[in-house]
Design a protein that fits this description.
The chain is mainly α and 388 residues long. The protein folds into three domains: 158 residues, no CATH class; 92 residues, Fe,Mn superoxide dismutase (SOD) domain (Helix Hairpins); 105 residues, 3-Layer(bab) Sandwich (minor pseudopilin epsh fold). Helix content is 64%, strand content 6%. It is built from 14 helices and three strands. The chain has a three-stranded antiparallel β-sheet with strand order 2-1-3. A hairpin with a 4-residue loop joins strand 1 and strand 2. Helix 1 runs antiparallel to helix 2 and helix 5 packs antiparallel against helix 6. It is elongated. The two termini are 49 Å apart. One of its GO terms (molecular function) is metal ion binding. This is superoxide dismutase. Its EC number is 1.15.1.1. Belongs to the iron/manganese superoxide dismutase family.
């Protein structure tokens, strides 16, 4: 989950700060650094609290040492002045790391207001850090940490409630939406037909949640805004920015529609091979299932930059085709209907597979929902234009 990634970033920043303390001769920090380095897996709430308490104790000791050195600086040589500068530099580094953590936390809507105030306070500071200012910053950072912990717990509870939604309820909602007309700017994020962690170990729950609630939501928001702005252009007869909003609609709209297909193209009990008419069509157009999979896999691996691999039905050619698309809307064919889509943007796999796109693709085949692809093919193949 995103909170785990944020805390891992916090751990990274604490380790950098701890290494600086160790160089200053603080023996107490060594135990913390070893513990952070050796930790494996997700951080439990108890571990997070314990780490924060340990950091607070170390910070207090560092502050005492800082104050002692400040007192020793009075009336001393340039060497003492150099030590003071060094401590100011170290605290400035701490401020930088806390700022980066704060920017990540600001992405959580529930904490955005408090974080923005904190970031403004840091950005507006000028000159050396006094003891009073340091205490103030530490207090604000501690309060934000507690707020982040509350958000983490709340989101965990919401996820548990979401898990109680049955497949039948989701199917009923999707069926209802089939008969709805969406007005301009009225698109919504579709529900997943499974839990965020249901596709593990092939696709992690943390990655799915981030992909669905953040990335896909941004495409929905972008599409709605573009459609509303074009509606406004029609009402006001002002088309000066039309090109910009058409491009936004193409990018975000394609992202929204492809992701909606993508979620339903996967299932916890997926994999295997297609059946029925789709199986026969694949054999006719590609020679065999093995050849089809190899072609599709290579197309996905070789997408330049970010984009998708697509299995489509061509109503004009009356056959299946494998296409690539860059981003969501570039370098592909018109007049085709997507049946099976694979997202190879880095946000789809990087948290789990790093830069190993091939490993992600090979693992993805284990969650392909062939029943969904078969249903899409059944409907799409009814559409046949005159062949040219």
């Amino acid at each position: 989950m995103e909170q785990q990634a944020q805390f891992q970033q916090y751990v990274h920043e604490v380790m950098e700060w701890g290494k600086q303390l160790r160089e200053e001769g603080s023996a107490d920090v060594e135990e913390l650094l070893v513990r952070l380095k050796q930790h494996e897996g997700e951080w439990s709430e108890e571990e997070i609290y314990d780490i924060q308490m340990t950091v607070d104790v170390l910070y207090e000791k560092a502050m005492q040492l800082f104050q002692e050195r400040n007192e020793q600086m009075t009336g001393q040589t340039e060497e003492s002045t150099s030590e003071k500068v060094e401590w100011q530099t170290q605290f400035q580094q701490y401020v930088h790391e806390v700022t980066e953590w704060g920017k990540q936390l600001a992405q959580q809507s529930g904490a955005r207001g408090e974080v923005e105030d904190f970031l403004v306070r840091l950005a507006q500071h000028e000159g050396e850090w006094t003891e009073e200012a340091i205490c103030e910053i530490q207090g604000m950072a501690d309060a934000l940490y507690e707020r982040a912990l509350q958000l983490y717990q709340t989101e965990e509870e919401l996820e548990e409630k979401t898990a109680d939604v049955t497949d039948e309820a989701i199917d009923e909602e999707m069926l209802r939406q089939e008969h709805d007309r969406i007005s301009a700017g009225g698109h919504t994020l579709p529900p997943l037909p499974y839990r965020y962690d249901a596709l593990e170990p092939h696709i992690s729950g943390e990655m799915m949640q981030l992909h669905h609630t953040k990335h896909h939501q941004s495409y929905v928001d972008g599409l709605n805004k573009a459609e509303k702005m074009m509606q406004k252009a029609r009402e006001t007869n002002d088309y000066e920015l039309l090109t910009h909003w058409e491009r936004e609609a193409a990018f975000h709209g394609s992202g929204h529609y492809l992701h909606t297909i993508f979620w339903y193209n996967m299932t916890p009990k997926g994999g295997g091979e297609p059946q029925g008419a789709l199986l026969e069509q694949i054999k006719a157009d590609f020679g065999s299932i093995a050849r089809f999979k190899q072609h599709f896999t290579e197309a996905a691996k070789k997408v330049e930059g970010v984009g998708w691999a697509l299995l489509v039905w061509s109503p004009r050619a009356h056959r299946l085709e494998i296409l690539q698309t860059e981003k969501h809307q570039f370098m592909t064919q018109w007049d085709t209907i997507p049946l099976l889509v694979l997202d190879v943007w880095e946000h789809a796999y990087y948290l789990q597979y790093k830069n190993d796109r091939a490993a992600y693709i090979n693992s993805w085949w284990n969650v392909v929902n062939w029943r969904d692809v078969e249903r899409r093919f059944e409907q799409a193949s009814k559409l046949r234009w005159k062949a040219f």
